[in-house]
């Protein structure tokens, strides 16, 4: 598959607390290049770091060593919507598309030596859809593969509100993949619980949902506010009303995510890795 080796560049704008070596700024002392100050050789017994000039200046005549912060790994979690609205799609469902995106995220995380986990949610969070953080993400990869052929039965997304219970206590980068066809109150509640983490909302909207519709006939659509399927008779100006509904929904989603400092990343028919890299450069400076 064309996306198997795709990656994008991401970074965090906080200092990782992880002990595992990685590529992010860290608060951990180690063999890095970020100067963190001086200490006595008694407090930090590393003769390789002796600073002769600082030692000469020390009024207490103690040997001084330079201390540095190492580069560390950071936790990454993929949370993917398993609800029925994600069944949408003819050639490829949103579940399959989410699986492809999750594979690209995993590739990117492995390239940076970070730990990764996976959580699938619908009206609840089933333990069989949870993979704990690991630097060898075999379980996560297995769930992503399972997602590629998944077809949801009637279910919603209430379990999204419990994601915080399954995410590490340390500050975590969370890729939240969904079409977000759900009540806005549920989105706000989720974001409130995840305030200490960095949430990246990856919003899957297919143009066939709201633009590439027939001008006349019976169709089934997902209500963008509730996620519920509706069968309607398309006629007259109904198409324009559907487009207006999605346009307003897009504005509402942008407002609520920006309120919680989580700029949304909308995805149409293709996941653009370059655009994802630019997203991190624009919004989250390292």
UniProtKB/TrEMBL annotation:
<feature type="domain" description="DUF58">
    <location>
        <begin position="47"/>
        <end position="248"/>
    </location>
</feature>
<dbReference type="InterPro" id="IPR036465">
    <property type="entry name" value="vWFA_dom_sf"/>
</dbReference>
<protein>
    <recommendedName>
        <fullName>DUF58 domain-containing protein</fullName>
    </recommendedName>
</protein>
<dbReference type="InterPro" id="IPR002881">
    <property type="entry name" value="DUF58"/>
</dbReference>
<dbReference type="Pfam" id="PF01882">
    <property type="entry name" value="DUF58"/>
</dbReference>
């Amino acid at each position: 598959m064309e996306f198997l080796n795709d990656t994008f560049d991401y970074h965090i704008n906080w200092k990782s607390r992880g002990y595992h070596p990685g590529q992010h700024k860290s608060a951990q002392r180690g063999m890095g290049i970020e100067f963190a100050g001086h200490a006595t050789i008694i407090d930090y017994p590393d003769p390789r770091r002796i600073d002769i000039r600082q030692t000469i200046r020390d009024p207490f005549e103690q040997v001084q060593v330079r201390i540095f912060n190492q580069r560390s790994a950071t936790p990454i979690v993929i949370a993917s919507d398993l609800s029925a609205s994600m069944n949408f799609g003819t050639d490829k469902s949103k579940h399959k598309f989410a699986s492809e995106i999750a594979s690209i995220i995993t590739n990117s995380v492995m390239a940076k030596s970070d730990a990764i986990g996976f959580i699938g949610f619908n009206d609840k969070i089933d333990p069989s859809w949870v993979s704990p953080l690991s630097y060898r993400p075999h379980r996560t990869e297995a769930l992503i593969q399972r997602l590629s052929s998944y077809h949801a039965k009637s279910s919603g997304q209430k379990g999204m509100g419990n994601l915080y219970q399954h995410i590490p206590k340390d500050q975590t980068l969370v890729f939240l993949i969904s079409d977000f066809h759900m009540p806005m109150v549920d989105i706000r509640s989720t974001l409130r619980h995840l305030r200490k983490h960095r949430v990246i909302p990856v919003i899957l909207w297919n143009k066939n949902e709201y633009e590439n519709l027939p001008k006349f006939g019976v169709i089934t659509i997902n209500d963008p506010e509730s996620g519920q399927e509706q069968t309607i008779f398309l006629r007259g100006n109904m198409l324009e009303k559907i487009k207006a509904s999605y346009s307003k929904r897009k504005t509402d989603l942008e407002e609520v995510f920006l309120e919680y400092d989580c700029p949304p990343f909308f995805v149409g028919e293709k996941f653009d890795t370059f655009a994802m890299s630019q997203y991190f450069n624009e919004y989250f400076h390292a």
